[in-house]
Design brief:
alpha+beta; 6-stranded mixed beta sheet; 2 helices
Length: about 140
């Protein structure tokens, strides 16, 4: 059962088919016409295990983000901002770019920040979070 909205109407998200959080947070939240998706990693929602292979893991992370956004009526085209975290910029940025170009079907993607970090949860290599525009009733 989803928690009740906050006094200002923020709704925490836990859609079917999404990954289970690995800690005390939600995979997303709706605030008005915006959907905020938590940092998604390359976790297989069916098994809870990290996907093998760098490119496959990056793709799975984007698809996990997409699943949460779609649960609120947003598509990848409705993304207004992405933040990407990688543990090796030289090796992983080109793969992230390749996967993003495929998923956005060659269209320009939303504004994106990419940051190299020393470490991610579960010693993962990649994480992506997104903000999406999804008007209620639209």
């Amino acid at each position: 059962m989803a928690p009740a909205p906050s006094p200002n109407g923020v709704i925490l998200l836990s859609p079917d088919g999404a990954i289970a959080p690995t800690g005390p947070w939600s995979v997303g939240a709706r605030a008005g016409d915006f959907v905020f998706v938590a940092g998604m990693r390359g976790i297989d929602p069916a098994t809870g295990a990290l996907v093998e292979g760098d490119e496959a893991r990056i793709r799975r992370a984007f698809l996990n983000m997409k699943r949460v956004a779609e649960s609120e009526g947003a598509s990848l085209a409705d993304a207004v901002r992405l933040v990407v975290y990688v543990t090796d910029m030289a090796r992983l940025r080109p793969l992230a770019n390749k996967v993003q170009e495929e998923l956005w079907a060659g269209r320009p993607g939303p504004p994106r920040t990419i940051v190299e970090v020393a470490r991610l949860n579960q010693d993962d290599i990649f994480e992506v979070e997104g903000t999406f525009y999804a008007p209620r009733g639209g």
